[in-house]
Amino acid sequence: MPPIFVFVDTSAWYALLDRRDRNHPAAVRLVQEYGCPFVTSTYVFDETVTLVRAHLGHATAVRFGDRLWKEEIARLVRVSSEDEMRAWAIFGHFADKGFSYTDCTSFALMERLHIDSAFTFDAHFVQYGRFVNLPTA
In what order do the strands lie in the sheet with 117-119? Predict the structure, then answer.
């Protein structure tokens, strides 16, 4: 049974957009198989459109960003100041991990919204110890 909500990380968005990405087939399969609503954050939006612009061009970044901004492909949730404070605490606590601050804002937002599944190819979500990565191997 699919989860109720799935948080989408930058690595998944990018894999969906770049057909040359090694994770593209798995990303497309997951979208086709899961009927649950996707959720992402404003920080992931920022990270993704920046990455897409650098590798796939400005026009592709704008098309993707417009669809996400209009919430056509996922619910776009603003990272709150409380999420930012929680993210900073997570960032400071895990010196042994390679978590980016954006990863930590995702963890904090997922905790706040009680989302336990992440559509990602980033192992950091599992390393944090509270989330399940989709797709699974």
Answer: 75-77, 38-41, 6-8, 117-119, 132-134
**Enclosing domain of residue 82:** 6-134
* 1 in a structural domain: no
The CATH code of the domain that includes 33 is 3.40.50.1010
Answer yes or no: are the C-beta atoms of 88 and 62 closer than 8 Å: no
Burial grade of 77 (CB within 10 A; 0-12, 13-18, 19 or more): buried
This prediction's pTM: 0.93
CA 126 to chain centre: 13
Note down pLDDT in tens along the chain; length 137 residues: 556 789 999 999 999 999 999 999 999 999 988 766 899 999 999 999 999 999 999 999 999 999 999 999 999 999 999 999 999 999 999 999 999 999 999 999 999 999 999 999 999 999 998 888 888 65
Q: Domain total for the chain?
A: 1
Residues 6+ apart with CB under 8 A from 109: 7, 41, 77, 79, 80, 83, 115
Residue 20 tokens read as: 């040359």
